[in-house]
Amino acid sequence: MRPAALALHTDFYQLTMAASYFEHGLDQQATFSLFAHATPPERGYMVAAGLEDCLEYLENFRFSAEEIDYLRSLGRFSRGFVDYLAGMRFGGEVWAAPEGTVFFAEEPILELSASLIEAQLVETFLVNTVNHNSTIAAKAARCQQAAAGRACVDFSLRRTMGLDAGFAAARSSAIAGFGGTSNVAAAMALGLKPVGTMAHSFIQAVGDEKNAFDLFAQTFPDHTVLLVDTYDTARGLARAVETARTLAAQGHAMIGVRLDSGDLAAMSRLARQTLDAAGLERALVMVSGNLDEYRIADLLAAGAPIDMFGVGTRMGASADQPYTDFTFKLVAYQGRPTLKLSEGKMTWAGAKQIYRSHDAAGIISGDELCLRHEARPAKALLQPMMQGGRRLAPPVGWAAAQQVLQAELASLPAQCRLIRAPQPLAPTVSPLLRQVQDDARQAALAK
Question: Boundaries of each Nicotinate phosphoribosyltransferase N-terminal domain copy (predicted)?
């Protein structure tokens, strides 16, 4: 979904800083941390996603000839700097949490060490990619959690913030456990199950609802899901039953019906009663229409007999929290720990590691933020992913990330998994990291 040339997908100030570094010999080894300052409101956890796109981008980072010509045309940069960019490749290392890992505020999910210019130029892409993918993965995970074992599928493409965002939503929701997507391009590229029924326009175009049902069933006798609320839901359900009986007489079975409007709790009860009374106990009741984790939880709490949720706009746009406060900050330069002391935006100095402990039942008992070289008898979340600009392992697909996330969610404390008013964990900080932080603070304030 992304264009081949991506190096200019950066903020202009990255280039102006890089040019000044180049001209003044400041392009030394640097380490940056990518983390979120705060867990978003109404979130008990965050989900690491987008790493695979980041690694692919870094491994293939280069400026195209067209991009180099454009930079020369601006008249802002020296010939030497632009020539340097023309031959530049990413040669650094990356430590990161595997996709699907659950994390909390102030915990770096990616740390990158490279020349200062390289690190600065890739910042924007990394933050953009991790922000969107992780935000949607957390939203989708909460929707799947609210569904309590029932299937969720991705219907978000038409209202995501662009086609790239729709593609990312399909992948992130698959990591979260969704069983398919309406996005055909994503289904093809990622090996997801393509899902979809019919729109109200199909009923309207045919004119007669019963005839529309029959025509669709004739086209897809083994994949029939009928949208029953175009005109009158009770009448639509009765007509769906008639079509199902015709299919049964021909040796086929209707998969189910879909509801997209009105009182979904009441209409799903009517649908279940109508189908069961007709001997169609195995037919599914599917609902869609402005669903999110809150509405799904409320529907099931009200006893709505729903088998599948088509989740669209509110998941694909993460409507209640459309971004996460990710940032990418310099934490070491030339081997010297560095920090930022701005109010509300303080950073922890040095290359770091997160150690996660579990109780006897396998539930997370706490995270500790440490310096990279510290050792603990606990699970290290950050793993070496790239060295010398090359991946250390083959790409990992969404299915592996889904397995990681399922295990992570099963290990979360109950207060983190609440749909409403969850309570995220906060990491403790090792004494050694605190000492390095204090030393770096004193050094910064003394200048």
Answer: 8-131
